[in-house]
Design goal:
Elements lengths: L1 H15 E4 L2 E4 L66 E8 H4 L9 H13 L4 E10 L6 H19 L8 E5 L22 H6 L5 E9 L2 H7 L23
Parallel strand pairs: 4-5
Antiparallel strand pairs: 1-2, 3-6, 4-6
């Protein structure tokens, strides 16, 4: 019975259909010929490469998933750069010393003592081989006494240092300034030490670091000169700690 039906179907196909692209199609309409079970009829030359929907499942090429997009890392925050320190218009500091006025001068006076002259001679000798741009002498006083008197005294002492160094150092550019009692270095160390007067020896001695003349030397020195003068020739030098001798308990 089944063979009879299949033979009849094939006979009908032979008159009503033809093969195309691996499938048997209807002569009229062009659609695929199907069996009573809904299956498309393959031609004798059909191959898997000719599979077409909706008759047969069509293999699909596998598509690779898209590559993950690289996440952009935030740019590192710019590091703060140290501000360049402007160079002094006078040039680099060759030497800076702070000399006690108690060694340079008598109490309340602006005339250099012999030991004060010696200290300045030592400074002039250390910088005799340098190319000097300028020398700046700044006088300072302690807080004992009147403000205007201390200001005038600090200026007079700085001028005395300038006058002595004139002709002993290789520059005519020697500047002076007086700060009076405006820039003490003792801080709160000498607070509450009794009456602020010369007779208070304890206070006078405590304020000794405030009574000073600071001398800055601007210029340069060649490498050859550096090797000859040694470590004490540049920077603060050994003279920065001088002038604290026995006379440190008097003067202002």
């Amino acid at each position: 019975m089944k063979r009879t039906l299949l033979a009849a179907a094939l006979a009908a196909l032979g008159t009503a259909a033809h093969a195309a692209d691996g499938y048997v199609t209807q002569t009229f309409g062009g659609g695929p010929v199907t069996t009573p079970f809904g299956l498309c009829v393959h031609s004798g030359t059909w191959s898997p490469e000719q599979a077409a929907a909706p008759c047969d499942a069509v293999p699909r090429a596998s598509v690779a998933p898209p590559a993950p997009v690289a996440r952009a890392e935030p740019a590192p925050a710019p590091q703060p750069q140290a501000l360049a320190q402007p160079e002094s218009p006078r040039g680099p500091v060759l030497e800076k010393v702070s000399l006690s006025t108690d060694v340079l001068f008598d109490f309340g006076r602006a005339q250099l003592k012999p030991e004060g002259q010696q200290k300045l001679d030592e400074l002039a000798g250390r910088i005799s081989d340098a190319n000097l741009e300028a020398v700046v002498a700044t006088g300072h006083a302690d807080r004992i006494g009147k403000d205007d008197s201390n200001q005038k005294l600090s200026e007079a002492r700085a001028t005395a240092v300038k006058d002595y160094l004139q002709g002993k150092v290789a520059t005519q550019n020697i500047e002076v300034a007086g700060k009076g009692e405006a820039e003490p270095v003792t801080g709160a160390a000498c607070e509450r030490m009794g009456p602020e007067q010369r007779a208070n020896r304890k206070l006078v001695q405590c304020l000794q670091p405030d009574r000073r003349v600071e001398i800055e030397v601007f210029g340069t020195r060649t490498a050859a000169a550096d090797s000859q003068t040694g470590a004490g020739a540049t920077g603060t030098g050994s003279g920065s700690s001088t002038g604290t001798g026995a006379g440190s308990s008097t003067g202002r």
